[in-house]
Design a protein that fits this description.
The protein has two domains: 11-43; 50-148. It has helices at residues 63-73, 81-97, 105-119, 121-131, 137-148; strands at residues 11-18, 24-31, 37-43, 50-52, 58-60, 102-104. Strand 2 (24-31) and strand 3 form a beta hairpin. The protein contains five helices and six strands. It is 44% helix and 21% strand. A three-stranded antiparallel β-sheet has the order 1-2-3, with no helix packed on it. Strands 5-4-6 form a three-stranded mixed β-sheet.
Length: 149
């Protein structure tokens, strides 16, 4: 494993733990070259997942793309990185459970919205405003009234 600080491969594992859902292993490592610590995650590789966009174009599923959108929506909100990672894991589990290699982007967005609403309603509204392409205050009013029900 290459050290993210110095790029050397001389490091050893200090501790290993499985995640709560037993789908990955977290390894704490120590670099013998620069004496810094870093964490790596080991996951089993899964089948390729294709996202079908609104215009019917297909692109590979990109966890980081979804994560960036979520991180923008939780800015200055009391949401932890762990909550975001758990949300992303749950979205992926849901998409993979569909037992198809192609998933409409709309399905992914709906799942993110459903899970975000449970975490933080303000972050949910921010994400919804971009995902659902709000155009004016009436769109916000409709979303807020639905959230209050």
């Amino acid at each position: 494993m290459k050290c993210p600080f110095c790029g050397k491969t001389h490091n050893h594992v200090l501790e290993s733990r499985t995640s709560d859902d037993k789908t990955q292993i977290r390894r704490r490592r120590f670099c013998e070259s620069c004496n810094k610590r870093f964490t790596t995650y080991e996951k089993t590789t899964q089948s390729v997942l294709w996202v079908i966009k609104k215009d019917q174009k297909r692109e590979l599923y990109d966890r980081e793309k979804i994560k960036r959108g979520i991180l923008r929506s939780i800015e200055k909100r009391p949401v932890t990185v762990k909550q975001v990672e758990n949300l992303l894991d749950e979205v992926e589990r849901h998409m993979l459970s569909r037992q198809t290699e192609e998933v409409p982007s709309k399905e992914i967005g709906k799942e993110v919205l459903k899970l975000m609403k449970k975490i933080d309603t303000v972050a949910w509204l921010r994400f919804a405003s971009v995902y659902l392409e709000f155009e004016d205050l009436k769109d916000f009013e409709k979303a807020i009234s639905k959230a209050l029900k």
